[in-house]
Amino acid sequence: MKPITLLKLGGSLITDKSTPYTARIAAIAAVAKEISTYKEPLVISHGQGSFAHTSAKKYGGKKGYESTWGIAKVCQDVTELNAMVMKELVEAGVPAVSLRPLSTISSSEGELSSHSFQTVETALLQHLIPVVCGDVIFDSAWKTTIFSGEKVISLLTDYLIKKGYSIKKVIQLGTVDGFYDLQKKVIPLITPQSWTSMKANIFDAQQTDVTGGMKHKIEEAISLARMGISTDIINGNHPNLINCSLSNKPCIGTHIAPDIPDYDTITLVNENNEVTGTAPKLASHHSKTALHRGFSLFLFNEKNQLLLQQRSSLKKTWPLVWSNSVCGHPMINEKPEDAAARRLKFELGIEHASILMALPDYRYRAEKNNIVENEFCPIMIGKTTVKTLQVNPSEVEATKWIIWEDWLKEVKTHPGNYSPWCVEETLLLENTSVLKSLLHK
C-alpha cells in the first residue's frame, strides 16, 4: 500500500463554533469535492465544533457524567454531525465509511486500553476511506472520557506504523492560515525543539472546546513529529489548498516537522579530501555547491533484492527521483559506515544491517534544476534481514525491492529514470569482487 495520509477536518471549519449546533454544510461539501479526486490511501477524522463540545460542557463526559440522559445527548450530537459529514462525502463520490471511536476504542483513566483498529486497516485495504471523529469513549475508571479527533489520529498513526504501514503526513484543516503568535503572524514552522520555547506565543481558541483548544492540537502534532511524521496546518476555506498539501507542494500554513538533527551539516573538503570546514546542508546546495563528503549505500535483502527509494517530494535536491537505498553526508569525524547506519534508521527505520565498504574513492558531480551535487562519495554495500520498513515521509516518497540482475538491465536501459550517482555507482559495482561475494553468501 502507498503511504497513508490522515486528514483532520477541524470543528471550526465544519461548524459555526459561535452558534451551538450549527453545521457549515457548504464548507463540508467543498472539502468533499476537493478530495474526491484523490486516489491514494486516506483516513479522515473530524472534530465536533459547536455540536458535541456544547453538550459535553453542559452534561460532562470528559471524566464521567452525572446524567445518563446527558451523556446520551453528547453521543447523539456526535452522531448527528458525523451523519452530515458522511452525507457530503458520499454524495461527492468519496468511498467513505464511518467507524465511530465510541465502538472501536476503550480507555482507562483517559488512556487507551483496547481498540479494534484492524477495522480501519481492513477498510484501507479495500480502498475505502475510513472516517473517524472526536468521540465519547467508555472508560473503565471514569465511566466515560472524550478523545479528540487529533488524539484518535495519533493513536491510529501509531497503530498503522507498528503494523508496517508508511504515513505520508497529517493535514489539519481549520479556518485560519496556520497557527498565530501573539502578534497574529502565522508561524511557518514548528518543531518539537522550538515548541518548548514557543508555547507562550500560541494562543488558545476562544470558543468552547472540551478537548483542550489550539495548544492541544499542536501538542498532538508534536508527538507525531517525534515519530518522524509531519503535519500541515492549513485553511480549509482556501480553494485548492487541500490538494496542494495532499500533493506535497509548498503551501500557506504552519508546518510541524521533526527536529532538524544537529548533524544536518556537510563536511567541506579540498581536492585531496582534506577537511576545510563545515556548512549547513540545505543552504550549501545551489548552483556552486562546494566540494564535500557524502556516502552511498546499496542494501540487499536475503533474496539478493536491492532496495531502491524514491526521494521525497520535499527534498531540495532531486525530489521524487528514484535512487539507491540510502545516501547522505557523514558528520565531520564520522565513518561512512556509521553514517550509513544512522541514515538507514532515520529514513527507513532499519536498525540492523551489515555494511561493507566497496569503493572508497568514488567522486562525482551532478546537476539538476540548477542544484549541484559535488562529492567525494564512498560506495558501500550491505545486507539486512529486516522485512518491514518504517519510511520517513520527509525523506522518502516510496520504496521497492528489485533483483540485482533485473536492476542492471533496468539501469542500462533507462538510466534517465534514476539519480546520476546511482547509475554511475551501479555500473562501477557490477564487477567488483566484494559485491559478488556478498550476493553469493
Key features of this structure:
441 residues; alpha/beta; Carbamate kinase; Nucleoside Triphosphate Pyrophosphohydrolase; 2 domains; 8-stranded mixed sheet; 4-stranded mixed sheet; 15 helices; 32% helix
Kindly state the mean pLDDT as a whole number? Answer: 89
Which word captures the global form? Answer: elongated
CATH architecture assignment of the largest domain? 3-Layer(aba) Sandwich
Instruction: Estimate percent helicity.
Output: 25-40%
Distance between the termini: 31 Å
The fraction of residues assigned to DSSP E strands is 25-35%
Could you state the oligomeric state of the chains shown? single chain
Q: Radius of gyration from the CA trace? A: 24 Å
What's the total count of β strands? 26
Structural class: alpha/beta
CATH class of the largest domain: Alpha Beta
Q: Characterize the biggest β-sheet.
A: 8 strands, mixed
CATH H-level superfamily title of the largest domain:
Acetylglutamate kinase-like
Q: Number of folding domains?
A: 2
Strand order of the biggest β-sheet: 5-8-2-1-11-13-14-12
**Count of DSSP H/I helices:** 15
CATH topology name of the largest domain = Carbamate kinase
Low-confidence stretches: 203-212
Structural account:
By secondary structure, this protein is of the alpha/beta class. The chain has 15 helices and 26 strands. It folds into 2 domains: 4-256, Carbamate kinase; 265-439, Nucleoside Triphosphate Pyrophosphohydrolase. The strands form 7 sheets. It has an 8-stranded mixed sheet with strand order 5-8-2-1-11-13-14-12, with helices on both faces. The chain has a 4-stranded mixed sheet with strand order 7-6-9-10. Strands 21-18-25-22 form a 4-stranded mixed sheet, sandwiched between helices. The relative contact order is 0.10. Helix 2 (25-35) packs across helix 4 (68-91).
